[in-house]
Amino acid sequence: MRFLYQTLALAAAARAASVSLESLFGPYLSPGTEIAELNDTDFDDVVSPRWSEWRPPSWTGAIKPATEKDLQEIVRIAVANNVSFMATNGGHGTSLIYGTVNGLDINLENFNSVDIDLESNTVTVGAGAKLGDITIPLYEAGKAIPRGNSPCVGVIGATIGGGIGYETGLFGLGVDALTSVRLVTATGALVTANTTHNADLLWAIRGAGANFGIITAATFTMSPQPNNGNAVIGSFVYNSTASLGVFEYLAILDDVLPPELGVQLSVSYNRTTNETLLTVDIKHFAGWDTFVDHFESALALNPISANVTNVTLVQLYDGLDGPCQTGAYISGGTIGLGRTDPATLQEVFDDMTAFYRQYPGYIGQTLFQRYANNNTLKTPAHTAVYPWRDTKMFWLHENIYTDPALEKPTNELLVKLRKKLHATSGFPQDQPHIYVNYAFGDEGAEAWWGEENLPRLSFLKRRWDPKGVFGRGTPIPRF
C-alpha cells in the first residue's frame, strides 16, 4: 500500500510539473485570483514580500486568491497533485527551516479585513491583516486586544505562536483573547474552531496554529483601551559605563513590574562614534503621574540622551516600524528568561561589542523584552498549547548584515549568546523556553511547545494534517 501511495504521489507530481499553474489552478478559481509563474513579469506583484534575504523559501510560483472559496480550491488542487506550498502574509518568519521550502507561495494579501462588533465585544481580522491595520479601528472604537508591536507583521501570524507585545501585562497573550478561527484544512474543507466546536483544534492553534491549516479569519475578545487611548513613551540611551547599572535595575523589576509598563532593551552599535549603546524603550499605558517614578529611575542611571513624549496609541504603534525594513540578511533567535542575571546580560553586551568591532559590516542587535506576567489574564493551561507562561523576559537576537559571508559567524554568535543566557535563565537546562515566533529553527518541538504537550499535539497533527503540508517552519513531529 505504501508503494502504491508513493507511486501515485510521484505520478501526481509529474503531472503537476508538466502543466502551467494557470492550467492547473485557473479553471477552478474566480477571475480576481492572480497567478504567476516564477519567470513571469508580474511575479513580484503576486508573490508575498519577504522581510529577510536569509534562508528564504524557493518559490516555484505564486497565487493570490481573491476569495475563501478560491483558497479552498488552491489547497485541494495542490494537495491532490503533490504541489508543495506555503501561505504567507507579512513574510517575517526567519526559521532556518524556511530555506528548505521549495514550492508555491499563497499570498493572503486580499484577506485584509478588520470587523469590529461592539455588541459581542469582538473583532474579527482576516488572514491578510497587518498589525498596523487594526490600530486605528480599535482606537476609534475605544478598544484593545493583545497584540504584537510592529505594524507590518501579520495579526494572525503574530498571535498563533503565542502573541506578545507591549500591552501583554494589561491584556495577556494574543492566544488568551483568541476565541475562534476559520481554517482551510489539508482537504480543502473550511472548518470553524472555537471553545464549543473543534475545541481540541483551537487548543492546538493557540500556540502552534501554523501547523493545522490556513487561517482565513480570527476572532478576538476586546478589552477597553488603556488610559483613554493615550500613553507616555520614553527612550533612554546609555553607553558602556552605565550598562551594568541598567541591568541591575532591570533585575529589581523581576517581580514588581506593573502591568501598564512595557520595557525593551536593545544593544546596538554606533559606527560613527564607535561605541556600543544600550537603549531602553518604555511604553507606559497610563498617565504621567504614575510614570514619574520610572522616569526618575531612568535618569538616575545617567543616560547620554533621554526623550519622553505623550502620544496616542496610534502614534505609538505607527512609530514601531523597525522590522518593516527589507533588503538585508536577517536571522533571529530567542530564549525565555525566568530571572534577570545582570552579570550575564553584561557579558552579552561585551560579546556584542567584540563582535561589532571584529565585523564592521554587522548591523544586528540583541533585545530584551520585558512585559508584566499577569496570571489573572491567562486562559487556563489546558485551553492552549502555548507552554511558557512563566517567562518573565524574552530575549530576541537579530543578526542583520548585507554580506552573505557573515552568515556563519553571526549564526555562531546567536547560538553562543543563547546558550549563555539559558545557563542563568532560572529554568532547567533541559527545558529551554523558546517563543516559537522568534525561533531560530534548530531548537526542536519540545523547546517550542513543551514535552508534555507533544503526544496530544502529534495526535491532532495526524488527524488534521496527515500528509504534513502545513507548518513548514516549525513542524510538529508525528510519533
From TrEMBL:
Domain FAD-binding PCMH-type residues, every copy: 52-225
Key words of the record: FAD, Flavoprotein, Oxidoreductase, Signal
Signal peptide limits: 1-16
DNA repair listed as a keyword: no
MF (Gene Ontology): FAD binding; oxidoreductase activity
Coiled coil: none
InterPro entries named in the record: BBE, FAD-bd_PCMH, FAD-bd_PCMH-like_sf, FAD-bd_PCMH_sub2, FAD-linked_Oxidoreductase, Oxid_FAD_bind_N
Transmembrane region(s): none
Pfam families per UniProt: BBE, FAD_binding_4
Protein family according to the UniProt entry: Belongs to the oxygen-dependent FAD-linked oxidoreductase family.
Protein name according to UniProt: FAD-linked oxidoreductase afoF
Organism from which the protein derives: Aspergillus mulundensis
